[in-house]
């Protein structure tokens, strides 16, 4: 089942189970379970464990969903409690303040899925997939297009947002489409033109939409 197909059965806030009374103010070691998902929102999670520099303070709330259903439930929880949402990919080269991050930090690294169609050369991958790993895998199978990404740490989602690139190539050159999730839980499929790509930028930067998956065009 693809991430797109995992869209059903979104949790409602009224169905949330908590170990303690649900409030927008986190306390140490509070865990909020989202039923019908594999998702648990945790309070005061130290982000040093999720960045390459291994430094930084705690997230007020932290969640690492493994599928679209859990991601939607997490966004719904944040929206109904007016929590600011910060998205975290691989955490590569990211410095987090010792003061931490308020609101809900959503780590997308566990959104994992890939499907390759050898007839079209199109590779559809979830936002949490490692882009250098994909580059190595594609090359080992004789497919070109991702060679520039071998030395770039990070995830597909982050690469799509910032238009990652190297050696005169970038992800915008091979992106067919990106699926993004809005705070209200709706999904959109956007083309590179709609994403407004420029050098290391896109319209997704500074926005509130989260990349869930991308389709890339490879060549034999």
Explain what this protein looks like in three dimensions:
The chain has 220 residues and is of the alpha+beta class. The chain folds into 2 domains: 4-107, Uridine Diphospho-n-acetylenolpyruvylglucosamine Reductase, domain 2 (2-Layer Sandwich); 114-217, 2-Layer Sandwich (Uridine Diphospho-n-acetylenolpyruvylglucosamine Reductase, domain 3), CATH 3.30.465. It contains 4 helices and 13 strands. A 6-stranded mixed β-sheet has the order 1-2-3-4-6-5. Strands 7-8-13-11-12 form a 5-stranded antiparallel β-sheet. The longest helix has 13 residues, at 68-80.
Briefly characterize the structure.
The protein has 220 residues and is of the alpha+beta class. Helices cover 15% and strands 29% of the residues. The longest helix has 13 residues, at 68-80.
Short descriptors:
alpha+beta; Uridine Diphospho-n-acetylenolpyruvylglucosamine Reductase, domain 2; Uridine Diphospho-n-acetylenolpyruvylglucosamine Reductase, domain 3; 2 domains; six-stranded mixed sheet; five-stranded antiparallel sheet; 4 helices; 29% strand; globular; oxidoreductase; EC 1.3.1.98
